[in-house]
């Protein structure tokens, strides 16, 4: 029987409020199976930490450290936005990863990220295996965008949806109380790039305020200026005010973003940073109707609100880590555990494994049956889908009136290889 081989876990891409619960799930599950796994290392800054040999020995974490991980927002091991170049363009990156994996006898690579991260993980594993060092690669799902295809939902989405719906409900109460003599229109901007899952989550406020004058503008439907203004006017005339939640990736009928914050240029591609659409719409309404308006961009707040974590979402994230390790125990490779629903009343679910490359090429958009014909509201089917995902609350500890959270610092292992700087 072969000896137990070591594990590397890493975090990639935008964070969620529950990504560290997945980390704890991986670490705890690995430690329960010493017959299969050796040490479990966590890379600092994702694949960059692998390249630069910045690793911490998570096998030595205390129970207190693991408990803190389970409630810590952000990426405790500092995630990265760094995709490996193609092998032809930069073989040195892959050679370096192989060198690190050989040095630390890494036989298992668990990468906690979105679709793009899954491709990176698989490429690394394939390269290592092709060069005589087999590595089992398993993805650990996460994204607040909920665009992970083949999965009922994405770990991280439920908590962000809970935050968005809560914030919009509270802001709507504010607007309702002031609209007679002040603000008539308020717009909240939700993340999600080209999908509108977080945007439609704002529609959950209808469960508390059934007659709320609400406009929902998801990225899946083009923005038609005249129809939007007509709807705003109708709601202000009939209700006295209008509240709007809009996707950051909202486009006009010609496929152009309504608002772009910035374009980051790299030698491989351009990364478009979206933002500002709520402010744009707020200005449009103010100028058209000569009324006072406001807008807000939650930005990082919606993905880091540890005080608004959904219990359902937390359990999904924690079990995502465990499911990834179980897949390795079962001899799986190149797979991503995704959520499969068994029953809906109440929600009962489990993890099943799908091919990494298969899911990486797909994007899950809000389906037509979740949106009204005019594309500016959601249907009861959408509410039925969303409600179970925001159910339950996670108790957190407070210190001096604030959540008891702070950056976690980990001792790094002593480096054994020559220095290496990951550069894009």
TrEMBL record:
Residues 7-327 form the Phosphofructokinase domain. GO terms for molecular function: 6-phosphofructokinase activity; diphosphate-fructose-6-phosphate 1-phosphotransferase activity; metal ion binding. It is an enzyme of class 2 (transferase). Pathway: Carbohydrate degradation; glycolysis; D-glyceraldehyde 3-phosphate and glycerone phosphate from D-glucose: step 3/4. The keyword Transferase applies. It comes from Hydrogenovibrio thermophilus. HAMAP family: Phosphofructokinase_II_B2. It catalyses: beta-D-fructose 6-phosphate + diphosphate = beta-D-fructose 1,6-bisphosphate + phosphate + H(+). Belongs to the phosphofructokinase type A (PFKA) family. PPi-dependent PFK group II subfamily. Clade 'B2' sub-subfamily. Its main location: cytoplasm. This is Pyrophosphate--fructose 6-phosphate 1-phosphotransferase. InterPro entries: ATP_PFK, PFKA, Phosphofructokinase_dom, PKF_sf, PPi-PFK. Catalyzes the phosphorylation of D-fructose 6-phosphate, the first committing step of glycolysis. Uses inorganic phosphate (PPi) as phosphoryl donor instead of ATP like common ATP-dependent phosphofructokinases (ATP-PFKs), which renders the reaction reversible, and can thus function both in glycolysis and gluconeogenesis. Consistently, PPi-PFK can replace the enzymes of both the forward (ATP-PFK) and reverse (fructose-bisphosphatase (FBPase)) reactions. The active site is at residue 145. The record marks 142 as: Important for catalytic activity. PANTHER family: ATP-DEPENDENT 6-PHOSPHOFRUCTOKINASE 1 (PTHR45770). Mg(2+) binds at residue 115. It comes from the Bacteria. Non-allosteric. Homodimer. GO terms for cellular component: cytoplasm. The keyword Cytoplasm applies. One of its GO terms (biological process) is fructose 6-phosphate metabolic process. Its EC number is 2.7.1.90.
